[in-house]
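Milestone M4 deliverable, item 7.
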Amino acid sequence: MPTRTASLRPNSKVHGGVIAGQALRRAYVRVMGARIAAITETDAVDLIVDAAMTGCGHWTITANLDHLRQYQREPVVRSLVDAADLVLADGTPLIWASRLAGTPLPERVAGSNMIWSLSESASQRDIPIFLLGGDRGVAERAAEVLRGRYPGLTVAGTLCPPRGFDSDQSELERIRTAVVLASPQIVFVGLGFPKQDLLIEHLRPFLPGAAFVGVGISLSFVAGEVTRAPGWTHNLGLEWLFRLLQEPRRLVRRYVGHGVPFLVRLLLSAASYRVKSGTDMPGWGWDLLP
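Output delivered:
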C-alpha cells in the first residue's frame, strides 16, 4: 500500500493550472476512471512548455499499468491522479486496451522519452530546469549528460533526497528551499510513484508557476546508471520483462504477481466495453469488470 506520510500531505494545496491549449487538455479517454490525455508526445511537450513559459503552474503524471492498478485500490493514488493537470499513457498495455475498447489513445507518451524532448525544448527557449531524485550523484550526472546533448540548456539545480526524506520535516524543508531558490520553470521529479507525486503536491504551493513532471527512473536512464530496454521491446509491450530481468527481486511481485493479472482484467474489461457500447467516442471510457 502506498505510504501517505504525515509530513507531505497536511496543509498542502493542489494548484489547478490554467494552461494554454485547453482544446488539447479536453481530449481524453477515461481508462478505468482515470482521465488519460489523448495527445501525442509532441503536443504534450508543447503544452508543458507553454505552461512553464506563462508561469501558470502545471503537473504531469506519466501513468503506466501499475499506476492504474493503484488508482483502483488506493484513495491516495486516486486523489493524486485526479488532481494532476495532465495524465499521459506511459505504457503500451494502456494503448492496447484503449484501442480494444474503441477509445484509442494516439500513442504511448513515456516519461523516459519526455525528459529528452522537454529538455531539448527548454534549451531552445531558455527555460531553466531542475532535476530532483535518483540515488546519490544520479541527478548531477544526468544534468551533465543533458547539458552535453543540449548545449543551451540551463540546469538551475539538482538534488537527490536521502531515504526517508518524506517523513523528515527538516529534509522536506531543505528540499523545498533548494528548489524554490533555484527558481526553475520545469522540475523533473524522479522518485517513483506515488512518492514523487506526493512531493510534487507538497512543493507546488511554494513554486506555483513551475511545471512539474514525474519521470520515475528516467534520471537513472539518462545518467547511464540503469540500462533502458531496447526500442523493439516498447511496441511489443515487453519493456517490463527487460526491467524484471535487471531487478528480479524488487520487481517480480509488481510485474508478475500484480501486473499480469491486472492486465488480463484490463483487456477483458476493455473488450466488454467495446461490445456493449458499440461506439468509438473519445472521452468515453470503461471500468474494471467485477
